[in-house]
Amino acid sequence: MVLQVKTSTYEAKTQEIAKQLLGATQENRSFLGSLRDQMRWDDKLLAWAMSNPGLRVQLFRFIDTLPALQNKPEIAAHLQEYLGEESVELPSALKGMLNFANPDSMPGQVAATTVSTAVETLAHKYISGENIKQVIKTVERLRKDKMAFTIDLLGEAVITETEAQSYLERYLELMQQLVEASKNWSVIPAIDQADGESIPQVQVSVKLTAFYSQFDPLDAEGSEEKVSDRIRILLRRAKELGAAVHFDMEQYAYKDITLNILQKLLLEDEFRQRTDIGVTIQAYLRDSEEDVKNLISWLQQRGYPLTIRLVKGAYWDQETIKAEQKHWKQPVYNDKAATDANFETITQLLLENHQYVYAAIGSHNVRSQARAIAIAESLNVPRRHFEMQVLYGMGDKLAKALVDKGYRVRVYCPYGELLPGMAYLIRRLLENTANSSFLRQNLENRPIEELLAPPIPASPSLAGGNEGGFLGVADTDYAEEEATMKSAKAFELVRQQLGRTYLPLVNGEYVNTTEFVDSLNPSNFSEVVGKVGLMSVEQAEEAMRAAKAAFPGWKKTPVQQRAGVLRKAADLMSARRAELAAWIVLEVGKPVKEADAEVSEAIDFCLYYAEEMERLDAGVIYDVAGETNRYIYQARGIAVVISPWNFPLAIACGMTVAALVAGNCTLLKPAETSSVITAKFTEILIEAGIPKGVFQYVPGKGSQVGAYLVNHADTHIIAFTGSQEVGCRIYSEAATLKPGQKHLKRVIAEMGGKNAIIVDESADLDQAVVGVVQSAFGYSGQKCSACSRVIVLSPVYDAFVRRLVEATKSLNIGAAELPSTQVGPVIDAKARDRILEYIEKGRTEAQVALELTAPAQGYYIGPVIFSEVPADATIAQQEIFGPVLAVTRVKDFAEALAVANGTNYALTGGLYSRTPSHIQQAQTDFEVGNVYINRNITGAIVARQPFGGFKLSGVGSKAGGPDYLLQFLEPRTVTENIQRQGFAPIEGAE
After folding, report:
1. Active site includes 750?
2. pLDDT of res. 620
3. Is the pLDDT of residue 11 over 80?
4. How far is C-alpha 13 from the geometric centre of its chain's CA atoms?
5. Which of 276, 458, 669, 760 holds its CA 20 to 30 A away from the CA of 523?
6. Centroid of chain to Cα 447
7. Is 665 in the active site?
8. CB contact at 8 A, 392 and 412
9. Which uninterrupted H or E stretch holds 557?
10. Mean pLDDT estimate for the chain
């Protein structure tokens, strides 16, 4: 039976206990104040960060970079770059220290030594040791103070299967050594026993995602299988040794799948009776109360208690930013008081259900811990069933006060090398110096009433938003089970329609053709996605005549009406999102998540261009006294859109709806290999109400129908995306006046790139490796924006290539529709054979660092990485459009930029760096249309990263940007003299 005691009873007791605890933690505080001027440098840095927000940001960024810096001059240079910014107000002691002319100078070296020693001291405050020997020393000291422990292994992000295996092995080794050491420990009843029961002396805390490098909620089954195998090994060994295992909780995206995996696993016969295992709940998540209720019900069914560790949560900034960027609902509470209130609600829930659960209350907030004690004492919760937890180096005084009151306290002790431990350190520093932090408020002598007041949440906000400006649609969140089920159903639906025939649309009617082509599934070329009727040149002429006849009416159609058709098309695509994504996956072999993002892009193009055309329709007024001047836009005429196969929906849709909303009649000629998806897009435009002849679907051979339309005298605009060779030919042919042609044709062409990512010596290699792998091998390297070159500075070259190879080895290659697939097929046999030729050429120019095998029944090519590639090699200069990556070594950043700029292309480029001057220089000197810093270089979003390049990467304005529609319009100026007989209306005159 769940006990219920009035909350008011708890509150009085909470206040009483909190005041006692606060009294114990506040001793010597004024003494600290008097010592402020004599503080050590590590304390000074923290104190300054608390009092100066600008310094706080730059200081923490510097600390994040510090482990990557190789020597003192580098440290000194970065110190000046980060802290020398005008926006940063420096305390005089720091200003004096940074006042050196040269990083190599003696004062520079002194500054570097002082600050790096201070940061190291800070790190040692929060990190319990760099090796097992140091950790054992730490935990033995804690045990002397009657505190239990749990050990967490800090490390690089697990991005390779080698690292996932190593993570498991390091934990097995850690448990072995701790248990070995524990044989010499005497029993401490306060922490090793409770209610006549022994409690394991050794406990470790692990992260589920670290057991599989490709952990992904979309591939729930695959992730569960890989992770569970390793967890079983860990739990069996823990049982043999008598150690306890606790599972930490990480990012929100992994929460549901983490809980699902653990619940399934812990119901298996082998593990069902284990009570030495724990899970974690984060109170800053809006759905955490519901999760706890579900866990308690599950534990009742299981029949054996487990520990639930309740914490506030450590990824608030990350979760908030991700939700905003993705336009998803905020998973976390937006204000601290709401988290604190939820923490108290869940604390009560756990303790009122103590017969099913061991509660571990993790907090440094005196009120939160006092609340737990008040409830536990009121309900007579047995001591085995609850404990208090703090982080190593934080809340030390609170921990001591709790021990003195006779409670079991467990200290969460991260250990590992300081370099990978920096991310952890920064989370702790942010927590310690945040305005809302209890530890900080306590230090600042806030009134006791304020410190201990019950938390009152502000009004809730769920928005994941964009302040002003265009708000795009959200991608599907596959962390939600409902989304993966919807996707599976969509595949079933689409499979029932495979093999159907799709005909050209001319003047509102589908027309028969004599020639057909089969569109095949690149993942399995024996599967026909659809049969496409290829139109003849005569039919193309018919379409052109229909467009010409429809143009005057469409041109005069009010902009609001034209924009309405686009908005209706956007609604239809939203309703059919999962189905459209499935067509993309099956026809062009694009993995599910990327296909879903493409549907988002198509919808965004419709909504954004509708909005933009309404803006442009207002025109510009340049009136002066006695004269009106209007700057307005009108449609150009007939647009021919030639779309590619690699973004068969998004690019076809973007170019088409831009032409249409601007008032032009449009003929869409898709790539032959992706004509089924454009047929589906055609169905959507018809349903959205596009008039006859205004839009026509004209599949046909590029060399016949495409060439005919490009050269037609009535064509006004050609919007093309594809290869440089075809793009240049179109540009040349469009420049030639044809008989009867009374205008010059406008060509908009996007023609690919040889995109490079630079990795400098200050880069976060975890981030750089993941970003390069995604950019190079996402959609098998078949994006115009894909990374095909990595230019790496010599000091980090070998380490980078080693991890890049391991991370790429860990990718799953397979059919695009499988949720586990990261690398699918290439588009067709012709593409496959061309890429294989480049790989052969690469063997003669560079070293093969990795070549992965690939399945046979489909157009597959396993990722290939070439290392030590000369900057002028064929594979470093020509666009390959496949999963082939060239890695070039350079001596310094100047050479890196020169190599990056040393091709005929200028589309996308990236830089991984934590050196402000390098970031600044890349922004101005990297010759690309889209430069991405410290992130992957693919996946441009409409109205956020308008997309397009220059040099031989293309001509025209960026898609999804404010200038794009201007290319489909003719600007006109209309001036009228409004004076009559010397009289003109003058505003304000009577």
Report:
1. yes
2. 97
3. yes
4. 45
5. 669
6. 41
7. no
8. yes
9. none
10. 94
Residue 720 and residue 889: Cα distance in Å, rounded? 35
- Pick from 508, 547, 539, 498: nearest CA to 682: 508
| Cα–Cα distance, 546 to 534 (Å, whole number) | 18
Q: Which of 784, 787, 817, 879 is catalytic?
A: 784
CB-based burial label for 443 (10 Å; 0-12, 13-18, 19+)? middle
Q: What kind and span of H or E run contains 232? A: helix 220-241
Task: Give the tokens for residue 197.
Answer: 């029961």
Cα atoms in the Cβ-side hemisphere of radius 13 Å centred on 973: 6
Token pair for 211: 């057991």
Q: Percent of the chain at pLDDT above 70?
A: 95
- 891 alpha-carbon distance from chain centroid: 31
159 phi and psi angles, rounded to 5 deg: -120, 5
Structural contact between residues 759 and 918, judged by C-beta atoms closer than 8 angstroms: no
Active-site entry in 81, 750, 761, 817? 750
Contact between 640 and 718 under an 8 Å Cβ cutoff? The reply is yes
Q: What is the spatial distance between Cα 614 and Cα 633, in angstroms, rounded to a whole number?
A: 11
CA 898 to chain centre: 29
Q: How far apart are CA 578 and CA 596, in angstroms?
A: 7
Say how far apart CA 381 and CA 353 lie, in whole Å: 9
Q: What is the pLDDT of residues 486-511, one digit of tens each?
A: 999 999 999 999 999 999 999 999 99
Residue whose structure tokens are 């040349």:
732
| Chain position carrying tokens 């040692």 | 124
Contact (CB, 8 A) for 755 and 785:
yes
Residue type, 16: E
CB atoms within 10 A of CB 3: 13
Structure-derived torsion over alpha carbons of residues 344, 346, 348, 354, reported in degrees to the nearest 10? -150
CA 880 to chain centre: 26
Question: What is the Cα–Cα distance from 396 to 10, expressed in whole angstroms?
Answer: 25
The answer to whether the beta carbons of residues 819 and 594 sit under 8 Å apart is no
Report residue 704 as tokens: 């016949």
User: Roughly how many angstroms between the first and final C-alpha of the chain, as a whole number?
Assistant: 86
Phi, psi at residue 581, to the nearest 5°?
A: -60, -40
Would you say 847 and 867 are in contact if contact means Cβ atoms under 8 Å apart? yes
How would you classify the pairing of strands 277-282 and 306-311? parallel
Single-letter amino acid, residue 909: G
pLDDT in tens, 263-316: 999 999 999 999 999 999 999 999 999 999 999 999 999 999 999 999 999 899
**Distance of CA 91 to CAs 167, 849, 859, 971, Å?**
42, 50, 62, 56
Q: Is the pTM of this model over 0.85?
A: yes
CB 812 within 8 A of CB 854: no
User: Over the stretch 534-585, which tens digit does the pLDDT of each residue have?
Assistant: 999 999 999 999 999 999 999 999 999 999 999 999 999 999 999 999 999 9
pLDDT recorded at residue 27? 59
- Dihedral of CA 881/886/887/891: which sign? negative
The first and second tokens of residue 543, run together, are 């379409």
pLDDT of residue 37: 44
Do residues 947 and 785 make contact, with C-beta atoms less than 8 angstroms apart? yes
pLDDT 10s digits, 53-111: 888 889 889 999 998 999 999 999 999 999 988 878 888 888 888 989 899 999 999 99
Q: In terms of DSSP H, where are the helices of 712-763?
A: 724-734
Quote the crossing angle between the two packed helices 650-661 and 592-617, to the nearest 10°.
10
Tell me the β-bridge partners of 983.
980
pLDDT in tens, 757-772: 999 999 999 999 999 9
Write the pLDDT tens digit of every residue in 397-432: 999 999 999 999 999 999 998 766 777 888 787 777
What digits encode the pLDDT tens for the residues 121-137?
A: 888 899 999 999 999 99
Angle ∠(695,696,697) on CA atoms, nearest 5:
130
- Those residues whose C-beta lies under 8 Å from the C-beta of residue 639, and which sit 6 or more positions away, are 659, 664, 665, 666, 667, 715, 716, 717, 718, 719, 968
